[in-house]
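so my prof wants the structure for this chain in the tokens format not the other one, which i didnt know existed until like an hour ago. anyway here's the sequence
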Amino acid sequence: MGNLPTPVFIALLFVVGVLLLVLFIAFITFGRLYIQALSSGVRISVFAFIGMWLRKVNPRIIVDCLIMANKAGLNDVHSNKLEAHFMARGNVQRVTQALVAASKAHINLNFDQAAAIDLAGRDVLDAVRTSVQPKVIDAPSKDQARTTVDAVAGDGIQLRARARVTVRTNLARLVGGATEETIIARVGEGIVTTIGSASNHKEVLANPDLMSKTVLDKGLDSGTAFEILSIDIADVDVGENIGAKLQAEQAEADKRVAQALAEKRRALAVAKEQEEVAAIAANKAVLVLAEAEVPKAIADAFRSGNLGVMDYYRLKNLQADTSMRESLGHDEESGSDEQA
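here's what i got, hopefully its the right format
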């Protein structure tokens, strides 16, 4: 019985066997990565690979990034930081490449800044490249419907300008800084202000650098993720004569107003004429009524003896004479009209 293995010894052998089996499986699974890391000077244990597997982190990406950082001489890139950024849905490879590029270009950028820029949705590698090699932004952008910035000078002539803005990424303001669209909008605003403040469009055509100077003096890169290096006016074209067009439209509007007022006065005159015609008709009606009372008055005068027969005949002769004179007067007027 003394030579038989005890239960403790059997349990110990079982635990050791399980550990050896786990190590064997881990070595088979991660052995190539482990040897690659050791040969590149990166120290990482097999248990670290097991931990990555349990945390569902791709060990190939982490090892490649560690080797890249080690060969570039980066000291602040560690396995824990890379794993944390990977689990945060960050682009670990892009961040590492950006750190290597920044180190070679002597740009001050640490892992925390690069990771923050990447998690903010910005392309950190492109930002580093733009910091080293500035890029040119068209104002307005080629993606916009309008290809020029249009403004009107003091003499009413429209000018159409296009600018090219050379910018460099400001890594310190990349997180939370305004994008290229803000730069394009501010440059367009500066161009419109410069053209609009010019008394004559020829001044702008003769000195297009006035627009670039005005825009640069405004400090348009404040609060943005870029630093403006230069603003160059690519093209300035003469557009329409907006002043003359507006004057013509104003004259047409004034003409319509005058026509409306004249039509109003004509309508008032016609209404007044109709009122006078109605008044004349009313007066004629009153006259007719008054003339109808004359025979009654004559009859009453006969009855009362105030009017004799001879007086009546003299009145009739007077009326006949008056009618004859009126008819002669009408004939003379019609004759003179025909001669004219």
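also thought this was worth mentioning. DSSP finds twelve helices and four strands in the chain.
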